[in-house]
Amino acid sequence: MKKGLFITFEGSEGSGKSTQIALAASHFKTLKKKVVVLREPGGTAISEKIRAILLDVKNKKMSDRCEMLLYMSARAQLVEEVIKPALSCGSVVLCDRFLDSTFVYQGYGHGMDLSFIAEVGRFVTQDIAPDLTFIMDIDATEGLSRIKRKKDRIELRKMDYHNRVRQGYRALARQDPRRVKIIDVGGRGKEEIHAEIKKHLNRILP
Fold first, then answer.
1. Is the pLDDT of residue 186 over 90?
2. pTM (2 d.p.)
């Protein structure tokens, strides 16, 4: 039985997930909690190799089905190798993206069947679900403008796609308001955003 805490950070491109995960990790460490910080796709040697394939701009011919299954494959390895063991020993696991990303990027973004994604997701995650999920909500245009490095295969998609992703996240929040918290990041400083997140984190601490 799971003993740790599993917290995920979701959101559109350029929404500041990495910054807030680092601040959350520091918060838990001050509380003397053992913290594991992960990213998706990635987090294991195998999953990082899959990540490279998924984000490579040269892979223009990748089908939607192939893309979805590659994300799920990377996740399956991460759950088995890292997340499940970490939770079983009582760690706080902070993950940059999880199954919700597949629902919005491949489901809402590509129009893939959400019930099928859920079915595959249950198999892949071994029914492990986040205790709390933060959606870093930002206008898609603003978020993409924040990215100063060379954009990857997903980030280069048309604005209509990124807008569907944002709406998908909002839909997920409406469906599961207890778990999923929308955090408005537009025009706000990182410390102000962290203070709001920290209030939610403190409510779920034992």
1. no
2. 0.95
Predicted pLDDT of residue 2? 59
Q: Fill in the DSSP letter of residue 152.
A: -
Q: Do residues 166 and 136 touch, judged by C-beta distance below 8 A?
A: no
Question: Cα separation of 3 and 99, whole Å?
Answer: 20
Let me know how many helices (H) and strands (E) the chain has, helices first: 9, 5
**Domains of the chain and any CATH numbers:** 5-204 (3.40.50.300)
- Whether 1 shows a pLDDT value over 70: the answer reads no
Residue type for 205, please? L
- Residue 1's identity, in one-letter code, is M
Dump the DSSP string for 67-135.
HHHHHHHHHHHHIIIIIHHHHHTT-EEEEE--HHHHIIIIIITT---HHHHHHHHHHHHTT---SEEEE
CA distance 198 to 69: 34
Asked whether the beta carbons of 196 and 22 are under 8 A apart, the reply is no
